[in-house]
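Quick one:
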Amino acid sequence: MKTSRSTTRHPDRVDHHRAQHLSLETRQILTEDGVASVLVNDSESPLGWLARRKGRDGRSMISPHQFIAGEKLRADFTRGNMAPRMTANWAAPTGGRPRGAGSSPGEMTDIMMTARQRVSRALEACGPEFSGVLMDVCCFLRGLEDIERERNWPARSAKIVLQLALDRLARHYGFASEVRGQPSKVRTWLADDAAFES
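Output:
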């Protein structure tokens, strides 16, 4: 049985007592073998939590296109095997590679390589201002309060920064029309009959 932290291919095998403490949803994902129906624990992801919560205006704290963009980044991060190893690698030889080194190019598959390239391009498109918060929330599943405390940000400011970052990420993935609607017209303080001189 192939499992990960967020999905399982056998939803009927989740223990009843464990399932009552999870927020389980069935989703369709694209795998190497085609489309697969998987059981996802939405409570694991801060994005899932934000997508389910309603703000004072009654709308979700993040929009569907923001959620999809963040989950797409997370999927590529996972496919690229970019998460740090949390346990010892007992299958690795004792010599050769230095401790903490990532996968060598010979060990990487084409899927891993292209996923890593997509993550790199997405973070580069979002810029250094937003890439850190996207990695923390979408990829490392850190909570907003932890980010605010670590970076000495004011309370509830991480949500706003994350929303801006997810908008930029969604624009990179091609959701530009959904982010803010139609582009606004350029406004100036010039009179109607005034013109710029070259």
